[in-house]
Hints:
By secondary structure, the protein is an alpha/beta fold. The chain is built from 17 helices and 13 strands. About 50% of the residues lie in helices and about 15% in strands.
Amino acid sequence: PCYNEDVVKYFFRTRWDKKSTTRDKMCNISLDRIINLQNKLVPEMVDLITERYKVLRQISHDQPIGRRTLAKKLGLSERILRSHVDFLKEAGLLDFTLTGMSITEEGAVLLQELRDYVNRLQKLSSLESLLQEKLHLQKVVVLPGDADQDKVVTREIGRVAAGILLRLLADHGKHIVAVTGGTTVAAMAENTFGHEPETIVVPARGGLGDKMELQANTIATVLAGRLKTRYLQLYVPDSVSEDVLQKILEEDARVKQVVETIKSADILVHGMGQARVMAEKRGMDPKLVERLEQAGAVGEALGQYFDLKGHVVYSTDTLGLMVNDLEKIHTVMGIAGGRSKGRAILSMLRSGQDDILVTDEAAAREIIDCLQSDPNNQ
């Protein structure tokens, strides 16, 4: 209907400039109240805004991208997608070239500003508040979608985590940032842009797996490049015997110095994985993997395997950070998404060491389901 398009155009064309009183005043009505009103008067607008937000988000990650490829990724018919992109182009949010569609500068700004609005439309802010309260976290950000089904959600988690990291570094003081490996942490590094010459970036642990681009050393290098600052490397496998680790420390002063710097980190960004998946990546003996599952291990972070109550049931030997080191770190941020990781994320969070969580709706709802099914262990 025409009146719906008019309302949507208002939301997509109004620039919420920080210097403008529009966002601050909005006729003295809170954003939540506006959303409640539109849900009552034009509920179909919620789906329209959310769908166009997803179009902008997908283009921003894959630009330049053709219409047919975009329709396939979003699961939309080409006819429906054409109406969306034609509208967004007319609104000045998209550019069309021979290589495909790209988001304009105005579109990029609006996309960032729309995130909180869409979260509220989808009632994700209530999920954030609930998780923050139940798990005693300082901050929770829940993004729309399921990283298991849509890779762009993983990249969006990384982008939001990058923004939080930059705010933590905004004082331009001396910081040591430790990062683990993994797809989501790699996405965070790729989306970080700043200038923090007083910061040192270090890997939280040694190498794991065959994919160099997802190892902590590589991610630390990428993040340092994005921050235009220094980095250190830890050229030690993630899991070796305690005797070997001790010998390395005794014979290699350089490694010892790196380990001491890692242990002095004041910010940690880490991923979280499923216990069995991470055990297999480490090449653990199948019998040990079975014992882990029998012990109730559901999640892994920093080489520690947790049961659903947050207890460590197994630890790998390492020269890097371990869970008992985290209480000395000023800010610990866990980032992961996908329904399949819900229980794994909860197991780590219940250890009580994280301050910030960035995840997606699917994982958040799985966590809530676990909490509600086991109220005595919250």
